[in-house]
Fold each of these.
Amino acid sequence: MTKLLITEVTRMGPAFCVIGLQRENQKIHSVRPVSPNTNGWMDFPHQRGDILQCELTPFPGAKPHIEDRVSTRGFQKDSTVSELETVTYLRKAEIAHSMRELFGCPVHANKSGSGLYAIPGEATRSICGTETRNLRLEFYANELRATLVLSSGEVLRDLPLVDRDWRDFIDAALSESRGANRLGRLERFLNSQFHYKILSCPHHFIRLGLTRPYREVCWLMLDTLFPLPKLEWLEEF
Amino acid sequence: MTSAEDAIRWRKLVEDSFRREIGTQGALTDSHADLIETGVLDSMGWVSFLRTLESVSGVNELGALLTNVPPTLENIFSALQDARFSADTSDAKVLKANPSTRPSDVLITHSSAALGSRIIPSAQVDLAFGMPEGKLRKRAGIESLAYAADGENELILGARAAQQVLHDAGGPVQELDWIIVTSETHRGYPSLAAQLHSQLLARETCGALDVGGACLGLLNGLAVAQGLIVSRQARIIVVVTADVHSRLLTPGRVAGEFGGLFGDGASAFLLRAEVGAEVRAKMPQEDSFGAQHSYRLGEFLFGCVGQYAGAIRIADAPEGQLALHFDGEALSRAAVTRMEKVILDLESRSGFPRSSLQGLATHQPNPRLVALLAKQCGLAADKFPVVAQTFGNLGSSTCGVALDSILRATQTLSIEQRRPIFLASLGPGLLFGGAWLELQRG
């Protein structure tokens, strides 16, 4: 049995992708449990910070998704740690201070429009944590995008935010029951209170990930953004 | 441009940008189809397509206009039309309130270049930096470098170029409203613009302005000059670049693979508001500048690709040393990719296909990259004037010397034979910019 601290639950389309931390020989590293048939989970009832008991077997996944492990049994919840503690563990796992270090390879800008990508054969991993100097979220043509500055001063633009909790928060903010001018209110929140709440938080931390190869490239995504959103923030705008 | 022509132009911009995203062979989809639901684009492609469109149309925040509507081409046409209508309306209000603010065309009437007097074979520079003889030629394609002689510096080279354009224009320096200067090597005060003001003996009320941007400096300077003229703050401006790298990037301070690429030079351009023939005839004495060239400045595009900020960094270090971080491979890749993108955007925005150009005055980090850029763009190498191969990378003056070279070459051509010119450059950051020059109207 393996103990796994759930650190990421991401959502793109209908499926969820799950990543956790595993301690092995005093080292903490990321592991992505996948079902025997697909890379994603159509249902994942657990939360970030949950420590789950599971059965994982190595999986001959193609680079850069070397963290993939096949989950051969269901997950059983063991305990839960706080958000602060989760970030403390994440800071001990894969971490980078510059764009080049993120996935152990050059990161390329999309030639035609926006977005950043890595070449599957060049990248040596598909998930990494990092600190940011600044971060902005934007709701652009119905898509949630993040732009951020790494501690090295390098800027990453137009990253899709796939963090399940943040996406749920944005969906809730735009739900019809919240009255008029929802989009304008959300934009004002993202440009003001959000910025303060995120950047002033002592455990502000992000994890970036790579998509599965698509047309021979893996796009960069903002997998996780700490602190996680709180439902009471919805009352502020 | 009539509204019908305008609509056709916008539609073409959308179609060109869409094809850039899906591949040139892709067929245009039904304009009412939902691009994401039908699987034509995924969400990454949708945002990427809109960002391209923002860049080539000059309409920012297109995303805000497309929120809460399905992602269709028809909705994009409509959003662009709305953005255009609102810009037209606000322009009309300004013009009605104050007709004197009507924008003028800005002409580049004269140009000049000045290079360091010593032409040094690159093999000699190899040895000075302790590199194997022939490295700069073989690796970067540099045959020789222009180095400043004793007594030459940014002020001397810049003044030489500026005095040449003033001489060619035949006009007294007292008519200048602004001297705009850029240099990536000049340090200290008074600033280079202030020193040039004194050196040229401009009138006391002529402004002197230094602009930054390193190798992008010329485009920054031209854009500022255009703004001052269009807003009627100025009528005649000289824009000067001047760089002397050979005293800054010396052996022992930086590695030869970096320092060995650079030479010394300057350029100058005289800009003025275009006045109509009738006005010119009525006030022949108002200014005495004639025109050597017949090009007017088109639009500019600028930006900063921060993900390459770490590729080149230079800072002062203790004991007079320079702390240099130079990731040549990453920078080369980024430079070619971004300049190609700038050229593509200029092509879309101006409506001038690259095949129709007189030439391209671009930054030239080294001759190998110029050759690669030409190949990537499908252009003949001779569309790019030879600058870095003979004189080295001249910093902000590379683009200036290249532009002067193209402009001078057009002087032997009849007006009908002259073609538009593209400018494209980069600076650390990674800053980028582009502009075009087209023939004077009428």
Amino acid sequence: MTAATATPWRANGPSLHAMLQIAGWVGLGLIAVAVSLSDFLASAPANATAIGPLLAAPSADFRFGTDVLGRDMLSETLHGLSRTVRGALPATVVTLFAGALFGFVAARLPRGLALGLRGLIGIAASLPALFLALLAIGLTSRDWVSVAAGLSAAPFAFVRAFDRARQQERTTHSEYARATGISGATLMRRDLVYEFSDTLLSSAARALAAVTIILSTLSFLGFGAVPPHRDLGLMIAAAKSYFLHAWWTAAFPALALTLLILFARLAAGLDEGERA
Amino acid sequence: MSEQRPIIEVEDFGIVRGGASVLEKLSFRLCGGETLVVLGDAASGKDALLGVLGGYGGRGDEPSGTIRYGDGAALPAVKRAKPPIRIVYLCAASDQPLNPHASVASQLSRIVARRHGGPRASASEELRLALERLPGAPTLGELGRRPGEVDATALSWALLAAALAQAPDLLIADHAFADLTPRAIKTVVAALAAEQKRTGFALLYAARGLKTAAQLNSRVIVLRQGKVIEEGPFAKLAGGQSHAYTRTLFKAMPGTQDMKPPRNATRGEPLLQVQALDLIGDGRSARTRDGISFELRRGASLALIGEEGSGRRALVRALLGLDHIAGGRVVLDQVDMSILSAPMTSRLRRRIAFITGADDALDPRMTIWDTVDEPLRAHLRLPRDMVAGHRESALKRVGLASHDGRQAVAALSPYDRRRLQVARAIVSAPFLAVIDEPLRGLDAFAQSILIELLDDFRRQEGPAFLVITADVGIARALAEDAMFFKDGRVAERGPLREILKNPKDAETKALIAAVIPAGP
């Protein structure tokens, strides 16, 4: 028996995509718990040297081993993760407001102004985000690294939000709304209430992944975190000289960084991230 | 080929889904050349019936009863059993059954080839012959385009030809022609009947509305909530000697409503004056060649009647300011729209409501409450409690008050969306309501209720109606005056009652004949 020309569609329950997204949020939740309890979970305070032998391999006493100054790598990784997340959160907020929210609003500005802004910020979005971040730090100082990372991811978020809002404007329902006197401001309210707020969590997760990469790269290159306060990027940079014979000094911070970015990407629905 | 050879016999057929019965004790017999229409709404169980017979039943469906195919023995009804007869499924073009990126002809040829197990070239030839046998169908060459580039009527012809090219014993048509205009339905059904007579297949047609059922004019089973309400010839059921539910369904049928007497409102002051309007076609709408002039008075109702592409929708889009006007003048509420600034035009448009058969006319992201509140909040800036009061009153009038107001529009059925549009129009207190094919895609019961809602809306709020339709029956139910469009010009105009009695233009006659049977 065949359904020759079409077979009606049937729902098949929650998709793999939705399940992965839930897994991403669960992972981010666990990271949040680890970050908020880092002082409690870590056996040594941040940057405490000579806790154990130098460059000791992972063992029962030091589960993640120790580094060249005898610091406990488990404690250091937890503190580094905490530092990275605390830097990434304000950067994420900057990306959401200067990027996504501004994009939704700009799309409803008068056509010439809106398209002009889209063109200018589109050019910024085509540049490497790291270059933009370095530029922002150069114009300000290293104290503003979170803002610089947030601003450097913002153009891509702006373009996404702008294009989505413009797409909405061309829909039949927007056309009919305008035909019955609904103003552009009311249509923008629709976008803010339904589009921005509904996608806020996934936008935040996407931005978190992007700014984490930017912040860690800046720290790796020496433009981010300032010693003795170390984030994961700086920890990996510090392990450059000896990670070939003491792999644990770089592997565990890198693993923590990878998990943070992976969970953020999963929580964002594996959507293409803001350019990092 | 004998027309009396048995094709399918269903006995005590029922379907249980997730522990609940969706269809009970249905029995029917179909022989070659016979047609059976199963009429009911989305919850009637007809979709479950088609699913089991077509071999695509839901995972949780548990059929019971027996099915006898051809001359074989009666077998227990089970899902996905391979029957000894050739069953072909035909859906509506609006269901978008084809891949949008490949040509219609190639996709349909592949379907026919797969069914016959033969090469694509011979399947393509079968399809070409099937198209040639259907008068009015496009040629195979015209179907060498992608589905989005072919109009709905041509696509329906193509799907029908592909189904017939598979030489079915039983053709299951799932609302296949529901979205066509009455005139197109008449032509397609006539061609289908001729093919049925020639090859002797049985036709099982699932119908929501009555337009196609009226043209098929065959045996009808009326289903409601999984139960057979009534069964009999269409003419008998339409005659009024039937179950109360059936009578409600048939109230929406064109030609059964009494014509309303003309309203005094047509003698009121002018609301909309269109003078020598000239439009520029946008590729989607027909180009109006002659300047169009007419006047719509407060509280009056004017139907713009014509086939797709005849120019009526282009006219309304121009009136609403959605398309550019090349020439002429539109005066709304004594104000020339062309001299107003954009904000002033927008202010004037606040008193226009729009009710359309397009399912994307409402923002699918918005909630029910927000959809109704928006005109009140945006235009009147009323206090929150007054907005809630107006909203509740409007939702009650259209029968949506019991719905969860925080539900998104996307989750509503087409019928509920249509009622929500009426509720939104009610709170807008418009002086002009533009109503564009309001019954499209609805089942007969919903059509009947919606016409009543629109009538009630007009009686209570008193807006002028501008009705755009290809269906004279809808115009008859909602308007007193009419303009018939053909190829971008007005073919005939005047009081609808007079035109129906004595149509002069051939196009007008054809549009009327497609829905209202000639008298004795």
Amino acid sequence: MSSIPHDLVVGGVPHGEHAHHPKGIMRWITTTNHKDIGTMYLWFSFTMFLVGGVMALTIRSELFQPGLQIVNPEFFNSMTTLHGLIMIFGALMPGAVGFANWLIPMQIGAPDMAFARMNNWSFWLLPPAAFMLLLSLFVPGGASSGGWTMYPPLTIQQGMGMDLTIFAIHIMGASSIMGSINIITTILNLRAPGMTLMKLPLFCWAWLITAYLLIAVMPVLAGAVTMLLTDRHFGTSFFNAAGGGDPVLFQHVFWFFGHPEVYIIILPAFGIISEIIPTFSRKPLFGYASMVYALAAIAILSFLVWAHHMFTTGMPSASILFYMYATMLIAVPTGVKVFNWLATMWKGSITLEAPMLFALGFLFLFVIGGFTGLILAIQPIDVQFQDTYYVVAHFHYVMVAGTLFAFFGGTYYWLPKWTGHMYNEKLADWHFWLSFVFFNVAFFPMHFLGLAGMPRRVPDYAQQFTDWNMVSTIGAFGFGLSQLVFLTAVVKCIRGGAPAPAKPWDGATTLEWTLPSPAPYHSFETPPTVK
Amino acid sequence: MVRKRRELARWLRRAAIAALLAVPAAALAVPPWYFQTPATPVAREIITLHDLIFWICVAIFIGVFGTMFYSLYRHRKSVGHQAVQFHENTAVEVIWTIIPFLILLFMAWPATKTILAAHDTAASDMTIKVTGYQWKWNYDYVQEGFGYYSTLATPLDQIEGRAPKDEHYLLEVDNPLVVPVGAKVRVLVTANDVIHSWWVPAFGVKQDAIPGFVRDTWFRADKVGIYRGQCAELCGKEHGFMPVVVEVKSKDDYAKWVAEQKQKLGAAAQNPNKVWDEKELVAHGEQVFNANCAACHQAGGTGNAAIGAPALVGDKVVLGPAQHQIDVVLNGQTDGVVQKAPTGGKMPSWSQLSDVDIASVITYTRNSWGNKAGENVVQPSAVKAERK
């Protein structure tokens, strides 16, 4: 089962470097090559990251001081809504799929993804979806402004911007489901001979589990937004009490998707970190098996904790206790992962190149986000923090300092393989330190704002919150501008730089480092044998 | 090229230093960074619980990252450390699974006790029904038989920067909720349109207001004073502008206040046909307008085309027959173009306002911003006659 005969995979496909494919724009539109598609996913993700970032800076500019100065409240709400949707569905999720496309075939010794044409289609669904989301800013009534969580009845009231959002989510969901089917099939069927599941690189394990989560929950989200659509236009009353429905039902269905979704975003990051730390510690991962079990445990628990997002809706004590205990339990497998990374570094031979810096930054800040998550899990404390800036701080520590930092680390780690050039270490170090400092300047004060009682999603605030908001806005601009350093480092690396050897990192052990740099357009046409 | 790069590096270094300095500089003034002073036993328990768990987390954090930094310091290649190739140790892995679990049990115990205590709404001394509206609160004293709306009192001029902001900017209302000190107040929370959330940080109470459903919560304030909170669930464009203000009075003052409210209620009921003069109506109407209408039609009556709210300056309904305007305000817009917009896009019914309020606000629109309608004064009795 662990491999299929060579001629089946590459039968009829021209071999070698001289790949027969169209040139120019048609190459990218028609490509079925996992490397091309991975590249497109990553550039799409970065573009959306800049678009969502501009929205974040619009939000932070308005919040620089109390009063309404720059935007009106409706537009402000559209900005918070679109910032969330674009960062989650446009930047983080496609970013992770970009890494998957580039690396999974190379890490398991496969020539390409299992369904190469579907792979093309999964990517090309995304630009129209993003276009619809952005188009919604220009329709009568403006873009959806009910938050990325889209709670009815507020979203029932909105204009056609909300319908565009619903359709965009449908399309992006279809893209995710196809991508996941592709990844699962690839990992289960196209592994090189000898690569048993328990020899799979951890990045592939993380993505395998993520893909199952995606298949389980994306249809649930599609169902929730479809019910919104029929409530809006076809007279149903799923979420309308007057017609026998219940607004809270939406929240249950949404968060049944929404909680696994946060693990969908963080698990691939865990995978990347689990590749980087052993490489730069020059030691194998301390507990491979327990890392795999911890990933699986987190994934299973993620289906049992959704109502902790709804602790203030008024639930019976028994439900509150169940969801609180289940949520707290997630700390156990998360702890196992963190301890494993530490034990991997322990007595290693550590060097601090940019990928490792980002991995350590990830570890440090993600653990802060993990602890605030534990504090939020305690329901009585959550009553104070629900819908305040404390929550905003918490999820930016795990999404930005967590996933995004892992993506930066992963980019520097694999850039030599992707481009055939070494990146500029100095520029990358600057990128790390600027990002690290400004991230904390932007988001750490949000804990204080939440503690002091500032609600989230407000365009204006009482005067006692002014100072921390100013600090946060300065940090946000610093963080945003620091990403131009990243762009420079990547573009410079693509254009040139010291030629990269096949294995630029002496501690790396996975199969992609056995290929030359840059990786040939078609790789592993003959599967390697794994001992 | 090299010089340019060096200049850029110098600039970046300066920017980084400035950013690093920004944090301690801002901290010198010590703006609020911690919980508000609690005024109920539940709020105090929440803080105790938070502090306990916070310090446990800090201790673990120091342990974990102490280890990491030690390892970074001692086990670097640059100091000549050779990697020791070890991995997998069942005993260690079992220990680092079980110890966190035990710590969690230790945290769960006090949390469970607090939850059970905070959810006991039995044996309350009084009940108040709170209803969230876009964008104000209604407080209904169920047992006393009166109720009223509570709306943001901060003038638009302060929000839009034309006037200096006062001390309680955005956290002030026209009519606060009034409760007696020491009484266990049961709060029934619901909403009229979309989901809101009634939150008073000093009480440790936050309850979502869900249209069509009634949830309950409670508090027992143990200090006289004024406590300020806000709506905590995104409820549309004025979400940031519907504060919750609770005034806790002594038992005697509260009794006096209740008597006053009842007297007012009685006076209004006895005298529905009192004839008001134009000045009185316009003065009261301006308050009603700013509290209820200005959100869409704007303080200067200039309207907001983006959400389908017409300008009232020179508007044909305002300058036309009074009866039609009364009908529109009472029943909402039922004729003409209905534009679908973020906030519904159509004039809603304001029948929940009193006859005096509606008469005043109509009179105000007919005599302001250069408007001078033919029938420029509308009496409460005319509104009463129009109600169905």
